[in-house]
Amino acid sequence: MPINDWFKARENRKYTVTSSASGDLPDGVWVKCASCKHTLYQGDLARGAWVCPHCAHHFEMNAPDRVALLADDGSFEETDAGLTSVDPLRFNAAKPYTESLAKAREKSGLTEAIITGRAAIGGHPVVLGAMDFRFIGASMGSAVGEKVTRAFELAEAEQRAVVLVTASGGARMQEGMLSLMQMAKTSAAAERLARARLPYVSVLANPTTGGVTASFAVLADVVLAEPGALVGFAGPRLVEQTTRQSLPKGFQTAEFLMEHGMVDAVVPRPDLTVTLATVLDYLTGGCVAAGGAS
Amino acid sequence: MPINDWFKARENRKYTVTSSASGDLPDGVWVKCASCKHTLYQGDLARGAWVCPHCAHHFEMNAPDRVALLADDGSFEETDAGLTSVDPLRFNAAKPYTESLAKAREKSGLTEAIITGRAAIGGHPVVLGAMDFRFIGASMGSAVGEKVTRAFELAEAEQRAVVLVTASGGARMQEGMLSLMQMAKTSAAAERLARARLPYVSVLANPTTGGVTASFAVLADVVLAEPGALVGFAGPRLVEQTTRQSLPKGFQTAEFLMEHGMVDAVVPRPDLTVTLATVLDYLTGGCVAAGGAS
Amino acid sequence: MARHVMDFERPIIELEEKLAELKRLEIAGMPELASEIEGLEAEIERLRQTLYAALSPWEKVQVARHPERPKTQDYLEMLFTDVVELHGDRHHGDDEAIVAALATFDGRRCVVLGHRKGKTTKENIRRNFGSPHPEGFRKAQRAMKLAEKFGLPLVTFLDTAGAYPGIEAEERGQAWAIAECLATLSDLAVPVVVVGIGEGGSGGALAIGFGDRLIMLENAYYSVISPEMCALILHKDASRAAESASCLAMTADDLVRLGIADEVVKEPLGGAHREPEVVFARVAEAISRALTELCGSDGAALAEKRYARLRAIGVVAEGE
Amino acid sequence: MARHVMDFERPIIELEEKLAELKRLEIAGMPELASEIEGLEAEIERLRQTLYAALSPWEKVQVARHPERPKTQDYLEMLFTDVVELHGDRHHGDDEAIVAALATFDGRRCVVLGHRKGKTTKENIRRNFGSPHPEGFRKAQRAMKLAEKFGLPLVTFLDTAGAYPGIEAEERGQAWAIAECLATLSDLAVPVVVVGIGEGGSGGALAIGFGDRLIMLENAYYSVISPEMCALILHKDASRAAESASCLAMTADDLVRLGIADEVVKEPLGGAHREPEVVFARVAEAISRALTELCGSDGAALAEKRYARLRAIGVVAEGE
Ligand SMILES: [Zn+2]
Ligand SMILES: [Zn+2]
Questions:
Q1: How far is residue A209's CA from residue A207's CA, in Å, rounded to a whole number?
Q2: Confidence at residue A2, expressed as pLDDT on a 0 to 100 scale
Q3: For residue A4, is pLDDT > 50?
Q4: What integer is the mean pLDDT of A65-69?
Q5: Chain B contact partners (≥3 CB pairs within 8 A)
C-alpha cells in the first residue's frame, strides 16, 4: 500500500505547530501537546527527547534528533549522504515531483527521507538509519530503498548490527513501479543480513505504514515500537472506507499490535537507547558457535 | 494430551459391528453404515476400500488393509515386525498393561499399533507406516515411537520418502513419561528427515488425536486427511467439559481443519493412492539442485 | 451473450449493434442494404484498429479488469496437468484469494501460485475478489518453501487489486505476511517465473510478484498504487484516475522500459478475453522459454542472480 | 497469613493451631503449660518428618500445584538480570501463559522460556492459569530460533497443567504449534537446559520441556496425563487420582530412574514455598553447572547429542 494515508497520519500527529520537526523550532517557541493540551516550552521538549512531561505523549522526532538520541556521543558517521532521488518518470500530476523534492529538501534540510551511517549504540558497532517524516511523508522511493539496502550491505561487509528507526507513509508513488520494487529490494537485503546471522533491530515510530511496514521494517530479529505509534499496512482511513466498519479502539497502535503478537515490545522513548543497547548485548553475546542450519 | 478421548472416538465410529476391523469380518457378514443406515455386505465394503457406496462414509481401516490399499502390489516388506511393547512401569491400574497388550495382540493379530515397512507407491520407494486403532486405540508407547523413529531413519539411510497413515487416541499412558517422550523422539526423527530434504507425506485418518497429532503426524511436507476424520489435540469431550461451550458444527473434522488452514487437502479414499503417488512425483521430481539454506 | 462493455469501446459496440440491425433488415428482405453493411463493417474495423491498437494506460486498466479476462485458474487448467491444490497457512485459515498448487507444465513439475478472482459473484465473495488476507500470503510463503525444499520451479500469476485493507487483515499482520513473502521469495533457491495476467496491485501483487523472469501480458498492469487512489491523493478526485494511470508508468511496456519486466505477451485486438486460446498459447510459450533457460542453473546461483537483478532497480543521483 | 493448606498436611496444621493456642495461654499467665508446649513442638517436628519427608506421588502433585510455590517469573526475577521480554507470535497474539525473554544468568546471555501462572486470580485469568494456546507455543518457537541464530543458550521453566483444550486453541492448531516446537527444539544448535519447577502437564510441558539437561525440583512432576484424567479413564472416577499418580511414574525420582531427568534439586521440608531463597540458590547452582558444561560445545554437536539422548528413551522388546 502506498502513502494513501499520510493525510490521516498527519491528522493523527499530536502537535499543533506547523512543522513537527524539532530542528525547525527556534528555542523559545511554545508547543501545545495535542494529547493533554498542555503548552510546552519547545526547548524543554527537545531536551526531554520530545516526550510530553505531563502525559508522556511521544511527539514525532526528526531523523537528526533520532540519531543524536540513539548513537553514542560522536560515534555517528553518515554514509551515502549525497545519494538523492531523481525524477525518472517525469512525474507531473497536481505538482511536479521535482518541486516536491525541492520543497522537502528545503523544509527538512535533508537530502532524502532517511539518514544512514556507521554508529555505536552502547558500544556496539552498528549501521544506524532513521527516517524523517517531513521528507514527503518519509515515503520510500529509489533513494530510500537504495540507502536502506546499502545499510544492510555495509553491515554485512563490516560485521555490524543494523538498527533502523522507521516512520513512513509507504511507497513514493511519484516513482511508480521503481518505488514498489524497493520493497522487494530492501527485503532481499534484510534477508541476506539474516542469513549472515547479523543482528537487525527495528524501531517502529509514528507513523509507519504501507510499503515500509510491509518490507524491511518488520523483518528485524527484534521489532520494537514507540508508545502510541500508528503502525499498519493499510492506513486507518482506507480501512474504514473499504470495510465501512468503525475501527476497534486503539486500532493499529503499537500497543494493539503487541497484543496481536506483531511486535516484541513497546518501549517508551526515554528507555529506547538503553533497551537497544541491551538487546544488542544479547544478539552479539551468544556463547555458542553458530551451528544451526536455519 | 493422552488417549483421554478414545471413548469419544469410539462413539464417533460409525459402524455398528463390535470390531471395526475389516480383517475381522468373515465374508458374508452384514454391516450397517452408521451414517446412512444402509445395510452393507462386508465383502463389498472391503472391495470398495471401506467406503460406503451409498453415502461415501469412510469406515475405519485396519493397518494391513491400509498397506494393501496403498502399496504397489507385492512391494511391501515389513520392518521391525518383532519390535513390541513391554511393561516398564509394571502398570496396573484397573487392569494390568500386560493384559491390555495381550488382548490387543489377540484381537488385532498385530504385534503393535503400527505396521511399518519398505514399499513402493506409484513406483516411488517409500517407507510406509499405518497405525491400527484396534491396538489399544493406536496409542503411542515406546514401541510405536521406536518404530516411527526407525521408519524415518530407514528412509534417510535408503533415500526413501516416508508415508504415514495415522490414527491414534494419543500417548499410551500405561508407559507414563516414556510414552510422552516418544512425541519428542518421533518429532526429532521427522525433523532430521526434513533436513535431509526427503519427502514426508502424512494421511490423518479417523481418529487422530493427542500426542500423535501433536508430534510426527502434522510435521509432514504435505498433510492429507480423510473425509470426516476426527483430528485434533484435545478430544472433543474434553474440550466440551473444559470450556462448557457447545462445539461448533463439524468441529475437528478434516474439513474443519482444512478450513482453518491446517491440512493441505481432504482426499476421499478412492483417490488416496493416486494422490499420494502424484504428490510423491512432485516431491521427488524437482529440476533444481537443492541449494536453499532453510 | 451479455458481454461486459468497457467505456472506451462503446462507439464500437454501438456500431456493431447498428450493423446487427442492418443485417436483420437485409435478411428480412432489403438486399439493397448490402453495400451500406459493407461500409459499416469497414468502419468498425478501422475504429477497432484505432481504439484497440493504441489503448491508453487507463483503458488498459479497464481491459486488465475485464470480468471475462482469463484468470489464474484458467491458466492453471489450460497450461498445467496433474494439479494438486495445497490449502492453508497452518496457522489460521485457507485464503481462497490465493491458490497454491503442485502442477505440471509440459512434463515439468512446478509449484504454482496465483491470485484467484471469482467468475461469479458468489465465487468472488468467497475469494474476496482476489484480494488476499495475511493467511493467503502465509500459504504462499509455505508453498515457496516447499518448492525450494524439493527443487521445484515456482510459477506465479498476478491478478489482484491489492492486499485487502480490512480490520482483521491488519489484526493478523498483513504487513508482516507480505514482508515475509518478499524475504522468502528474494532468496528462494529455485527458478521463479512471474506472469502478470491482469491486475498487479501494489504490495499484494509484489508478495508473489518478482523473480527471475517477469512476463507481462500486453494489457496487464502493475502499479505501486491504483490510479483511482493516486488521483484521490493528488487531486482529491478519484475520477481523475486516467491522468494518474498515465503518470504511474504501470503498463507492460513501461515495466520493460524500466527494466522490471522482461517481455510483453501480445494480446488479441481488444484484449485477452476476445481469444483466450491465443493468449494461453503465447503465455505457455513464454513460460516454457523461461523455465528452459532457468532450470539448468543451480539454486544458489539463481538466488544470487535474482538479488543482483533486484539490486539494480531504482534510479538515483549520487552527489557529493 | 492465610496459608494454603494441602489435605495431607492438615494433621500438622491442626497441631500447629493447638500449639499456638497453648502459647497464647502460656503468655496469658499459665507458665505450667511450658512442658506440654515442648512436647507438642517435638510431636509436630516428628510428624513433619514423617509426612513431608516421604510424600506420596499424589502428595507431591499437591505440593507442585501449591499456589505459593515459586513460579517462572520468580526464577526469572531472582536468578536473571537485564531481562527483556519478547512478546508475540507474529501471527495472532501474545499468550501470557508463556513468557519469552532475553535474560542474563550470572553474566551469561540466554533466552528464557517458561510457563507463567498468575499469583492472583486476575493474573491467572489473563494467563489462563498457565495453560498455553497455540500462539504461546509459536512465540516459544520464535524465541528458540532467535536463540539458535545468535548462539544463546536456552533455559526453560516448566509449570503447566497442560496445553489448553479449548475450541479456539483447536481452531488455531494446538497440535501443530506443539509439534513444531518439538521439531525445532530437537534440532536447536544451542544448549537447552530445562527446569521442572512445578507442574509438567503432558504435551504442553513437553513443547518447551526437553533438551540437554533436565533438572527436576524434588516435588515437581512431569506426566503424560494428569492423575485425575488418568483415573477418569481407567476407573471412571477422577477421585482415584492418588492411585493413578502412583502408577504413572511422574515424580522427579521416577524421571531420573527412567533416564529422562538428569538430577533432582532437593526442596526444603514441606515444599519450595516454605523457603524459596534456598530453592533459588539450589536451582541457580544446577543451572550454572549445566550451562558451564554445555556452553563450550559447538551447536551442531549439541543437537547431535540431544538426538542420541532422545533416541535412547523408551523400553521395548525386540523379538523375531
Ligand atoms: Zn501531553
Ligand atoms: Zn453410508
A1: 6
A2: 43
A3: no
A4: 97
A5: A, C, D
What pLDDT sits at residue C275? 95
Number of domains present in the structure of chain B: 2
| pLDDT for the residue numbered C35 | 87
User: What confidence tier does A214 reach under pLDDT thresholds 50, 70, 90?
Assistant: very high
| Cβ–Cβ contact B293 with A under 8 A | yes
User: CB–CB of C233 and A4 under 8 A?
Assistant: yes
Whether residue A207 has a cis bond before it, omega within 30° of 0: yes
Is B43's pLDDT higher than 50? yes
- Chains C, D: CB contacts within 8 A come to 19
Tens of pLDDT, residue by residue over B158-176, are 999 999 999 999 999 999 9
Closest CA to A187 of C183, C285, B117: C183
Answer yes or no: do D203 and B183 touch at CB < 8 A: yes
The length of chain D in residues reads: 320
Could you tell me the CATH number of the domain that includes residue B220?
3.90.226.10
| Interface residue C93 vs chain D (CB under 8 A) | no
User: Do A46 and A189 have their domain in common?
Assistant: no
- Cα–Cα dist D68/B134, whole Å: 44
**In this predicted structure, what is the pLDDT of residue A125?**
98
Q: Which contacts (CB < 8 Å, 24+ apart) does range B156-160 have?
A: B156/B192, B156/B193, B156/B196, B156/B198, B158/B118, B158/B125, B158/B127, B159/B125, B159/B198, B160/B118, B160/B125, B160/B126, B160/B127, B160/B198
Residue D199: the pLDDT is: 98
The ranges assigned to domains in chain D are: 8-54, 61-312
Domain carrying residue A108? 60-283
Of B6, B28, B59, the domain-final residue: B59
Q: Which of B246, B247, B178, B167 is nearest to B209 (CA)?
A: B167
The C-alpha cell that represents D135 in the structure block: 500462539
Which residues make Cβ contacts (< 8 Å) with residue C270, sequence separation at least 6? C9, C48, C52, C63
Instruction: Return the residue matching grid coordinates 488418568.
Output: D230
Model pTM score = 0.94
ipTM of the complex: 0.94
pLDDT beyond 50 at D9:
yes
- Going from the Cα of A17 to the center of ligand 1, the distance in angstroms, rounded, reads 14
- The reply to whether residue B261 touches residue C303, judged by beta carbons under 8 angstroms, is no
Q: How confident is the model at residue D3 (pLDDT cuts 50, 70, 90)?
A: confident
Distance, CA of D280 to CA of D273 (rounded, Å):
11
Q: CB distance C102–B279 less than 8 Å?
A: yes
In this predicted structure, the answer to whether residue B14 has a pLDDT above a threshold of 50 is: no
**What whole-number distance in Å separates Cα of residue C297 and Cα of residue B287?**
9
Contacts of B262 in chain C (CB under 8 A): 88, 90
Residue B13 confidence (pLDDT) above 70: no
What confidence score (pLDDT) does residue B28 get? 66
Cβ distance A195 to B293 less than 8 Å, yes or no, reads: yes
Q: Which CATH class is domain C61-312?
A: alpha beta
Which residues in chain C are closer than 8 Å to B263, comparing Cβ atoms? Answer: 87-88
DSSP for residue A202: E
**Cross-sheet strand order for the sheet of A200-208:** A77-79, A114-121, A124-131, A161-168, A200-208, A222-225, A265-266
CA distance B262 to chain A (A): 20
Asked whether the predicted pLDDT for residue A17 surpasses 50, the reply is no
Q: Is the pLDDT of residue B186 over 60?
A: yes
